[in-house]
């Protein structure tokens, strides 16, 4: 199925639109998880939460909920993929507190990091095969057959990404599952996505993975609640294309 959600859930400007005015913020996760079946956690990139925090998120969400977690920048931006064993182990020691709620781990690379195939392979080798990993390079030197082959070897998905209605990555299928991030649309009011753009992306997922597509789709255009509206719209479009999306509001 296509798991549709947003990148994060704790946005104050969602109060009064997605969250009821009088709903305390401490109950927002439960409200979110009743309406979406997945969320992407970005704050782990900046500061890795304690394992107990991940355990609490598991306890507060339903059995079918999946949490995608962004890899700590300590590995990607400070170590720049070097010496990955300790950073990956520490990250997993914490994130595995989610238990069966743990979805994919997103490894987003710095925009100025040029391709280092051997370092990418070393990083992916640190993850157990039962942990899904998506990789989002952001420098053009990564788009080579060698990089594609490394992702395929480790069963890692290339994270597809959209900005302003255009792909920022090649549309490689490197695993039997997919990962798609929407950063910023061109529709009004900005940064919303238009239906045409959403239909195009649903078609790309269908073409790459078939009607039984297994993919995670996250909207990162949070200002003004655009991500919530667009996630709901994408789910409708995906369903119309013959795909099977998870719940949305």
Summarize the structure in words:
This is Histidine kinase. Keywords: Kinase, Transferase. It comes from Asanoa siamensis. GO terms for molecular function: kinase activity. This protein has 249 residues and is an alpha/beta fold. The protein has a single domain (2-240), classed as Protein of unknown function UPF0759 (TIM Barrel). The chain is 35% helix and 19% strand. The chain is built from nine helices and nine strands. It has helices at 28-35, 43-46, 51-59, 73-78, 85-95, 117-125, 145-154, 195-209, 226-240; strands at residues 2-7, 38-41, 66-70, 102-108, 133-136, 157-163, 166-167, 178-184, 215-219. The chain has an eight-stranded parallel beta barrel with strand order 1-2-3-4-5-6-8-9. α6 packs parallel to α7. The longest helix has 15 residues, at 195-209. The protein is globular, with a radius of gyration of 17 Å.
When the domains are counted, the total is 1
For the termini, the CA-CA separation is 17 Å
CATH class: Alpha Beta
Structure summary, number of beta strands: 9
* Alpha-beta content class: alpha/beta
Radius of gyration: 17 Å
Strand order of the largest sheet: 1-2-3-4-5-6-8-9
Key phrases:
249 residues; alpha/beta; eight-stranded parallel barrel; 19% strand; Histidine kinase; UPF0759_sf; DUF72; kinase activity; transferase
Tell me the layout of helices and strands.
Blueprint (H helix, E strand, L loop, with lengths): L1 E6 L20 H8 L2 E4 L1 H4 L4 H9 L6 E5 L2 H6 L6 H11 L6 E7 L8 H9 L7 E4 L8 H10 L2 E7 L2 E2 L10 E7 L10 H15 L5 E5 L6 H15 L9
Parallel strand pairs: 1-2, 1-9, 2-3, 3-4, 4-5, 5-6, 6-8, 8-9
Antiparallel strand pairs: 6-7
